[in-house]
Amino acid sequence: MTLAALLVCVCAFVQCGKGAPDDASRKIDRIAQIRPDYCGVVIPPNIAPLNFFIEEKGSEYFVRIRSTNGKSIELHSAKPSIEIPMSDWRKLLESNRGQKLFFYVYVYDSENQWSRFEPIENEIADDEIDPYVAYRKINICIMWRDMGFYQRDLESYTETIVSHNRSYGYGCINCHSYLKNDPKHMVLQARSAQYGTPMLLVDNDDIAPIQTKSDTTSGKVGFTAWHPNGKIIAITDNKFSMLIHTQAQEVRDVFDGACDLDLYRVDTHEVVSEDKISRPDRMETFPEWSRDGRFLYFCSAPQVPQKRYPEVQCDLMRIGYDDESGGWGDLETVLLAQDAQGSITQPRFSPDGRFLLFNVSEYSDFPIHQAQCDLYLMAMESGEYRKLAISSERNDSWHGWSSNGRWVVLNSKRIDGRFARPFFSYFDENGEAHKPFVLPQQDPTFYDGLVRVYNVPELIKAPIEIEDREFTQAIISNRKTGSGSSSPWTSGAATKANSTSELHYED
Amino acid sequence: MPLTPNSLEQRSGWNFIQRLPSLIFFLLFFLDVYLYIDPALIHISHFAHWRLPPYVPGLNVFSDLPAYPGKLAVFAAGWLLHIFYYSWAGAASITALAWILFWGADKYIGAMSDGRLRWLRFVPAIVLLAQYSRYCHYLMENISIAFGVLLVCLYLHASKLRPLLRLIIFLALSAILYYAAVFSYLLFVALCASYEVFHQRHWINGLAALLSVLLIPLIASMLVFDQTLASAYLCTLPYEPLIIGFQGPWLYLFLYLFFPLAGLFGAFWRSYAGKMKDSFKRYSVNATDSAENADPEIEETDPEIQEQPVASKLQLVFAASILLIVVLIAVFLSTDNVERQRRRIKCFAQHEMWTELLSEANELGPQDYDFAYCHDVSRALYHSGRLLDDLFHYPQVAGWQLYKVDDSISLSPADKMGRNSNLCDSLYEMGRVNEAENYALDALAGLMYHPHVLKRLALINIVKRQPDAARTFLIALREDFIFRNEAQELLDQLDADPDFTSNEEIQRIRSFMPVKDSIEECSPETLLRINPNNRMAFEYLMAYYLQTNQVADVVTNTARMAELHYDAIPRACEEAILIFMHSTQSRPFLNGYPISAETQERFFKFDRIIQSNNKNLRAAQGELEAEFGDSYFFYNLYGYNRIQKK
């Protein structure tokens, strides 16, 4: 008892010795080093707390989070990991939309005194971000044992499994796309040695496997884009193979041996080909519909032999389309790779159709494997384009928009150059993208040793409600039925080689 | 008979004596597992088990992976296997598992036979020992059985409750077992149903227990797990025969079936003994160690046993001797020395203990070799400076090239992962850093986690001057409690010197790396053009030429030896040069290197044997193999070599 009492006294004394920091603390003329980098960012008012790790040596830490309205959040911590209470954070953000948000960091240092750093200044946007982001989390590989498709509630830290490959023989689920960020209308691709390669189509609460194989196509859909009317999906039929670089920073690269565009009609299950977008001398990929649905944008590069892979320079093209008659217009070049000084890929329209966000990399129609890949923005009204300042020196790709057009999600390797993580950037009314911040995690050191990558993050307006068992059933039923939903092909003139590769490359 | 303090003391002493065989058994069990089987040898290759996810630091098995039947046993086994890294911890774990099976068997068989036949309780532990002596990998299944048996024992405790209550308890335990350790679900049902029918004589409960097999998977499939109805039932089978990497399951199946069969046997024995009660009363109770019986009723009802210490002691000694003999026979029959040696080779390779590796490899026969062992032995020979001297002291298999993948060789996914992990080591040392990275990434993805591969990836990124990526790999490695210090040391070095400029090994490998990017495979010839001092590239290239009988290329490349500071031409190369000279009748340029008199003498002797057999190679084969089986002369002529055991 005496010992315990003594211990309590000593603890109390030590605590009193440090006390609470105040303005009289020693002032350091810089902001504290924290990670993840939550400094100078604009955050949504509905984002989960931005827990962070203070990279300053000390025996105790104190953080005050303050904005214009409401009570500040004050946190004492013996460890440099700062975990912000959820309810206080929500209240603070909710009552300070459009206001500045300050992190005041104090460290009790080796000289037994509190040091006060310059406040870290962030901003709370008025516009909310879609509450969920869906992504794959995978190893960097082409054959995997553990591959999951997850969704994360951005307002908390809750991550749930949408589908996991353990349930269908360690296959793969890849590129997913949504009609206007709505998970009720979603399409994604499955690859399984046992169950084939169906395209999974979610229509409200139903999910169905769609078999797209025909005499002229491999039946392995790659990238997809929903027409705004929700009745047509532009799909690609790629023939990927992998290249290994002997000296480059990025070891792996993907070469597309053949790629054409087709249309899938949701109501009739027809797949329609068109010569203009499935030329044998060109590879056409990354489809994207203009917001009025009158044009199909895509990337196009000359089809070259594998050895000439650096010549894969994608131009940005478009072709008119009349969804009433199904008639096609003329092909137009929107932006040449030569002018953009790199290969143009992954075009994505803002929801209002005013801006087109795309990637430019040294070469390739598969930018995720490029050591550097930048984000570019084109104002559709003027046709002017520019590299966004938020681009890092590393790879930023797989970007997408929120449903309100105020937020951009991107997969960036900016932290360590190797592992892609989802970042969010505020996109203001003037077309300026603000410094991105990484998806917050409860443990601020979460990403430090995570050797899995995030892949194809997409913002969605609501959680995906199709259960994992339904995904599994849909994939498995593909083998049972042999064909999934029927899809009589209306074949165009383009000749397509069947892909024999079972490999999937999307880290 | 009243128990006096004195008799109590005697009894407790007698109890201890009766427990001695069990104690000695488990002590010997532990020592055998620890000292001979060596769980670290199981740890070394457990990552390649496709169906058993390894312990993955930082992975939240509950939220990161979907729920599926038996998940807890799977991950418990993964975690337990990880601590096999420490042999003592592995031995303790296996011994504990054996004891649980022993204890469970004792309780169940005791209950079914009313205390008779309890000597059978040693059988599961002996089978477990046999499994590990063969390095059979059934940990997850064994854990499931142990858990199932524990739940059966729990169920036995409810024997005095009303039948309906017992049934409810049974269903609750079934559900728990289905979720936690599904592989023993059917076993649990069978044991409980047998107990109800043959011991409790309650046919309705027995039938209900059997019928529940239809119910529990159905409910689980509908409400809990992401699985089809068929797989909900199939996963209850004792093992998955189609799963890749599962070795012959007989020892496991024997263990699995032992419990129900022993229980039934016990029940029939009890019935039989009941009929013969009068005549066999004094002898039907197991004499070996009845005092060890946890059921005090038996002890109280048979006090005579306490009165016959001499007879019991004799029986005890006899039973203990029988037990020892059975164990020795089981261990002798099940021991797989070849597998042990292969694992030791792998272990030595990972710890870069080259001398020990070569000594162990010397004991293996050619039939026991595969790509991985050829690779490890070649690497050990290179690091010992003996590759081109002693290459043909070890089996060579054409096609198993030392520095690249031969896709014509069909491998299981697990073996492919192992091969990738091997290749990344040698490619890294040779300077083919990107290719090493590619294999390492594949291995990491396929194996889910492998500390050695993580460390290799960190080093690769350090060599490539990508410290941020290297840091990520090292922090991932630091999460592993076993490799924490090693990772932290490298992290500290990385912080102090991100380029590792003072690290000679890193600098040396950097100097070997290709300077120009290409998507073509970087051959040793290319590496030698980049850096003529790349000795490993040179030796692997020469080894490849020797393996593939390209003697002209061996001769051509001998000229490079001066640049690499060879004192003399290695023996196997000398032999190849002599073959070349003999076959072309020429004197090639050897950059001033002589062919040793000893090698020349051996060549003449080799040739004399052929001449003495009238150039009949078949006739000369036996004699040549006996004397020159480990020479390149012999390999070149006959396409194989004989290992000269030292």
Largest interface, counted by CB within 8 Å of the partner chain's CB: A-B, 44 and 51 residues
What's the CATH C level of the largest domain in chain A? Answer: Mainly Beta
For the largest beta-sheet of chain B, the strand count, sense and barrel status come to: none
Radius of gyration of chain B: 32 Å
Low-confidence stretches of chain A: 10-17, 482-507
Subunit arrangement of the protein: heterodimer
Give the overall average pLDDT of chain B. Answer: 85
Quick overview:
Chain A has 507 residues and is mostly beta strands. Helices cover 9% and strands 43% of the residues of chain A.
Describe the model.
The complex is a heterodimer of chains A (507) and B (646). Chain A has two domains: 23-124, Sandwich (Immunoglobulin-like); 132-490, Neuraminidase, CATH 2.120.10.30. Helices cover 9% and strands 43% of the residues of chain A. Chain A has four helices and 35 strands. In chain A, strands 1, 3, 5, 6, 8, 9 and 10 form a seven-stranded mixed sheet that branches. Chain A starts with a helix and ends in a 17-residue tail after the last strand. Chain B has 646 residues and is mainly alpha-helical. Chain B has three domains: 22-334, no CATH class; 339-525, Serine Threonine Protein Phosphatase 5, Tetratricopeptide repeat (Alpha Horseshoe), CATH 1.25.40; 526-638, no CATH class. Chain B has 32 helices and no strands. In chain B, 67% of the residues lie in helices and 0% in strands. Classes of the chains: A mainly beta (507), B mainly alpha (646). At the A-B interface, β13 and α4 of A face α21 and α23 of B.
Write the layout of secondary structure elements.
The complex is a heterodimer of chains A (about 500) and B (about 650).
Chain A (H helix, E strand, L loop, with lengths): L1 H17 L7 E6 L2 E2 L6 E2 L8 E3 L5 E7 L6 E5 L3 E2 L3 H9 L5 E9 L5 E5 L1 E5 L7 E7 L9 E6 L5 E6 L7 E8 L2 E10 L7 E5 L2 E5 L10 E6 L5 E13 L7 E14 L4 E4 L8 E8 L5 E8 L12 E8 L4 E9 L1 H4 L2 E7 L5 E7 L11 E7 L5 E3 L8 E6 L5 E6 L8 E6 L10 E2 L14 E8 L7 H14 L7 E2 L17
Parallel strand pairs in A: 1-9, 3-10, 21-35
Antiparallel strand pairs in A: 2-4, 4-7, 5-6, 5-8, 8-9, 8-10, 11-12, 11-34, 12-13, 14-15, 15-16, 16-17, 18-19, 19-20, 20-21, 22-23, 23-24, 24-25, 26-27, 27-28, 28-29, 30-31, 31-32, 32-33
Chain B lengths: L4 H33 L1 H5 L27 H12 L4 H27 L8 H12 L5 H19 L5 H18 L4 H15 L3 H22 L4 H6 L15 H26 L1 H4 L15 H6 L2 H4 L1 H26 L2 H14 L3 H8 L9 H13 L3 H4 L22 H18 L2 H15 L3 H13 L3 H12 L5 H13 L7 H9 L11 H7 L4 H13 L3 H8 L12 H14 L12 H16 L4 H12 L3 H7 L8
Helix pairs in contact in B: 1-4, 1-5, 1-15, 3-6, 4-5, 4-6, 4-8, 4-11, 5-11, 5-15, 6-7, 6-8, 7-8, 7-9, 8-9, 8-11, 16-17, 16-18, 17-18, 18-20, 20-21, 21-22, 22-23, 23-24, 26-27, 28-29, 30-31, 31-32
